[in-house]
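Give me structure tokens for this 118-residue protein.
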Amino acid sequence: MAREITYLTDVFLITCVVQSGTAEKIINAATSVGAQGATINYARGTGIRDRMGLMGVTIDEQKEIIRIIVSKEQSNRVFESMYLAGDLDTPGKGIMWMSKLDRVATHIPKDVLKRVSG
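Here you go.
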């Protein structure tokens, strides 16, 4: 049986680095507007903590990194939803960015492929 790889194009990776304990709220916001899932990693941050401490803002060095792959059509809606849910307009809450991916490959059910191509 021949195996084929189906590549997805016009997809973006949203990466969001936030304080520990914040990821679930942000992921819930993303899935509520159409994101299909997320990957969370844990990390320790450095750098801005000392500067923000001078401004009276306490920043936990423990971080959660959220990664979500979305279609071009979903990208702005999901990005904005995550930004607002994470209160990223508040100093010290986190940072996020979006990158265009060249191609993505995963299992795609045949009925979904028929709907997209048909």
